[in-house]
C-alpha cells in the first residue's frame, strides 16, 4: 500500500487509543468527517474529541478490514465494535469510508454505514464475513 493507506492505518491505531490529540494529528485543521447517521464533525480538534468520547463511553474499537488508494483519495472497509450506551449490549457496525488527503493529512472522510434494526451489524447478506477474515460478534 501507499502513503495514504499508511496514514489511514496510523489514524485507526490512534482511534483505538482514545487520545484526542493523537487522533487530531492525522487531520488538516479544517477537516470534515461526514456520516450517514450523524451531523458532520468539523475540525481536527472536534474529530479527536468525539473519538475520545466514543472510546471512554461506549468502548469503541475500530478495525480496517480492507483498503485501496489512488492519488489523493483512499477508501477503506471497516468494522467497529462498541457497547450500546444504555443497555451495554455489544454491537458491531460495518461500513466504508472515503478519504481525501491533502499534504499527507486527512482533509475529509465520507463515512457510509448501516445499523438498522433488521440488520444491526450492517452485514452484507449472504457474505461470509468470518470466512473472509472479517471480525464478527458471537451469535
Give the topology.
Blueprint: H1 3-15, H2 20-24, E1 27-34, E2 41-42, H3 44-58, E3 61-70, E4 73-83, E5 90-102, E6 105-114
Parallel strand pairs: 1-6
Antiparallel strand pairs: 1-2, 3-4, 4-5, 5-6
Structure description:
This protein is of the alpha+beta class and 139 residues long. It has a single domain, classed as Nuclear Transport Factor 2, Chain: A. It is 24% helix and 39% strand. It is built from 3 helices and 6 strands, in the order ααββαββββ. A 6-stranded mixed beta sheet has the order 2-1-6-5-4-3, with helices on one face. A hairpin with a 2-residue loop joins strand 5 and strand 6 (105-114). It is globular. The N and C termini lie far apart (34 Å). 24% of the residues are buried. The mean pLDDT is 92.
Strand order of the largest sheet: 2-1-6-5-4-3
Give the CA-based shape.
globular
For the record, the count of structural domains works out to 1
CATH architecture: Roll
Count of separate DSSP helical elements:
3
Rg on CA atoms, Å = 15 Å
The overall pLDDT average reads 92
Entry summary:
24% of the residues lie in helices and 39% in strands.
Amino acid at each position: 500500500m501507499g502513503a495514504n493507506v499508511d496514514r489511514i492505518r496510523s489514524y485507526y491505531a490512534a482511534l483505538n487509543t482514545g487520545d484526542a490529540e493523537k487522533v487530531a494529528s492525522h487531520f488538516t485543521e479544517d477537516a470534515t468527517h461526514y456520516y450517514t447517521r450523524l451531523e458532520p464533525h468539523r475540525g481536527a480538534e472536534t474529530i479527536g474529541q468525539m473519538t475520545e468520547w466514543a472510546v471512554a463511553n461506549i468502548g469503541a474499537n475500530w478495525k480496517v478490514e480492507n483498503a485501496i488508494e489512488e492519488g489523493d483519495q483512499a477508501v477503506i472497509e471497516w468494522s467497529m465494535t462498541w457497547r450500546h450506551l444504555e443497555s451495554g449490549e455489544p454491537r458491531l457496525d460495518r461500513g466504508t469510508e472515503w478519504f481525501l488527503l491533502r499534504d499527507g493529512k486527512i482533509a475529509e472522510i465520507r463515512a457510509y454505514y448501516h445499523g438498522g434494526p433488521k440488520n444491526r451489524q450492517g452485514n452484507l447478506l449472504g457474505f461470509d464475513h468470518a470466512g473472509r477474515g472479517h471480525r464478527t460478534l458471537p451469535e
